[in-house]
Amino acid sequence: MAASLAQADTAQTPVAQFIANYSKAHQELGLGGEMELSYVKNIQHLLKHTNVAQQRRVFNDLERQLKALDPADSHRCQRLQLQQIDFELALHQQKLAVLEPYLALGKQAVLSEQGLANTSLGQAWYAFLRQAWLTMDSTPEALMDMGHSELERALTRYRALQASMGYGGHDKEFAAYLESPAFSYPDAQTPQADYEARQIIVYKNMHKLFMSTSIAPPLIRRSELGAALPVDGYYEPEQATFYFNKAQASYGRRNLDWLLLHESTPGHHYQSRYALEQRGCPAGLPHGFYSAYAEGWGAYVEEFGAELGLFQQPSDALGAVEWDLVRSIRVVLDVGINYFGWSEQQAQAFWRSQLPMLPKLADREIARVRNWPAQAITYKQGAVILRQLRQAAQARQGTGFDIRVFHDQVLRNGPVPLALLAEMVEHEDTQPAAVARPN
User: What percentage of the chain reaches a pLDDT higher than 90?
Assistant: First the structure.
């Protein structure tokens, strides 16, 4: 390892050589691949595959190399990569800082499947997982405040839609109405045609919010996974396909619009292909995937349903708000359970007090945040950061603000840690790259 890190390529600049060194070290240390959703599997993987002494030597050496570089010798894309590496090195050091004392506990170390609150060094593990999943500094207290604020915001929108549908103040009647057959497809029918029609509408309106691109829409297919995968839809990037899925007894109608926005265009499909058009930096780090950026973008674009020609019925917008409620309450529950040690009874009581209209989701979502600490926060944290950055850009630029340029700045360089997004957007070149054809 030491020899490979020290090996020089005279054809490269010092900055390019360092970036190559880091990527090679990343591969040789076996750090590739996405994180497991389960904290138990994540910790077990680290315990099995991490040589603490070796990794600390490598990371310390890389940090010294990074500090010795002259940023003036790098171009804009390299500077972005150096910032990403700086973030990743700090994250790896944080990992070692909790892993070493955990290993020192020996047989006394407890890795409980009943939550981080029952696991040795649980709060330290939670701090690492927050940084790894959210890719930015975030205190439990700040996240709790954000969760409460977003929950209140979503509840206000929910009540307004409930009233517009003629059920203001009549919660039981409204719940019964939403369970009626009007909001489900007959057994012999799928939403294929409706998804295809909606996708055409979205593409006709993309010019309002996005620069022209050559990105074609994804394929739309029915998934055969059914109840084995408890989601109504998902996107497969390698197949460029959006799959709708019959996870429940029937296909629901209220989830069509927001799910298409999130998974297809302008969500994951559009986002994953945008940087490939060479609009910004030609290529990022080969190992740089950041969930909070991806899921945050998917959640963020759901708010533009009306501008993109969807949400034509109040119930369509209601479906988006219902999942906004779920994502908001997840933040509070995640912190409450994994940091403050809330019991199952406390978590259930909080859900009932806030979301009595969604009782069927409580058990699943509470189990999710207990088993996947911080992961469920990525949607809301990323969306909130993007909304705040947009509002800041509007305040700075006034009447010169162009939301299409803002979205180009966010997407053109591909996934980055949320910690770098604000600086990248503020200093990004406002002139977009050449385009291939209009949407």
Answer: 80
